[in-house]
Amino acid sequence: MTVSAIENFVQTTHNTSASTSGAVLGKDDFLKLLVTQMKNQDPMDPMDGTEYTAQLAQFSSLEALQNIDAEIQQLKTNQAAANNSRAADYLGKTVTAAGDSFDLAGGTTSDLRFRLTAGAAETYVKVYNGAGQYVTSIDNGARAAGEHLFTWDGLDSQGVAAPDGAYFIDVMAVDGNGHPVATETVFSGRATEINFRDDTAYIMVGGREVTLADIRKISS
After folding, report:
1. What pTM was computed for the model?
2. What is the CATH number of domain 94-219?
3. HEC states along the chain?
């Protein structure tokens, strides 16, 4: 049996196993295959030393890759457990998180702010409804670097009161030379519960779910 033959056997066995039981040809199977090959080799035409060395190298590589994969999976499990434990500490606290959505009720918007990384000569905010349809644009003029509260009277571009519901915004800012200024939208709310899905902790903040990566600030 040649090196290429073993590779074909490994691939075939892997595909068959994966399609039936989800199993994968492991290092023990590979070693058994190599030993069986040596036992059944033709005495008149024994295995070439170079070929044998190549197969041992393949076995060593397979073992190393499987060990690395096991260590990575363990690290991911440990990290997920640590994150889930950390998430519990946020319950009952006021959390500021990245997000561009807000609620409109009776012409009043829920908390939503935008941050500018530098001073802006012009700042515009476009409002969209929950279906992604354009509603209106708001000219916020020149703004200094830092955090600014988003305000809207609830009227669309035709001056008609928009219905209550969920909306989101898109902020565009440029400096005096017309160069874009980086922006980020954030909102705040009290963390009320945590949901765990796919090893990820989702924290409910002001009726919206956020992950740990979304959180920007925590206060009591």
Report:
1. 0.59
2. 2.60.40.4070
3. CCHHHHHHHHHHHHHHHHHHCCCCCCHHHHHHHHHHHHHCCCCCCCCCHHHHHHHHHHHHHHHHHHHHHHHHHHHHHHHHHHHHHHHHCCCCCEEEEECCEEEEECCEECCCEEEECCCECEEEEEEEECCCCEEEEEECCCECCEEEECCCCCECCCCCECCCEEEEEEEEEECCCCCECCEEEEEEEEEEEEEEECCEEEEEECCEEECHHHEEEEEC
